[in-house]
Amino acid sequence: NRLALSWLQQAANHHADVTRRTLDEMTETARRMATVEAPPDKAQAALEAVDRAQSLGLETAKEITALMQRMQGDTVALLGQVLRGGKD
């Protein structure tokens, strides 16, 4: 249980960090867009922001999936030890 809780806390912390980075990036993009005069520049900046946010979201999903798989593997190994009486 402690191991599972530790992994879940790591996943939550990682998700919070990614969310914070995404919000910071979107804020910076909004600031840049507010100072750009030409509409094509605004559209390009918006598209770039969306592309970065999408890439970051996919990367985060992959990282969290890997973390959860590792958590499951560690949990199965630990349960195996417990069921064998800790003899390994």
In short:
With 88 residues, the chain is mostly helical.
Tell me about this structure:
The structure is a single chain. By secondary structure, the protein is mainly α. Helices cover 90% and strands 0% of the residues. 0% of the residues are buried. The model has no long low-confidence stretch (mean pLDDT 77). Helix 1 runs antiparallel to helix 2 (39-83). The chain has helices spanning 2-35, 39-83.
Shape: rod-shaped
Largest sheet: none
Counted by DSSP, the helix tally is 2
Name the quaternary structure.
Answer: single chain
**Mean pLDDT across every amino acid position:** 77
Low-confidence stretches: none
Number of extended strands: 0
Through-space gap between termini: 20 Å
Structural class: mainly alpha
Q: What helical percentage do the residues reach? A: over 70%
| Radius of gyration of CA atoms, rounded to a whole number | 21 Å
Order of helices and strands: HH
Q: Tell me the β content.
A: under 5%
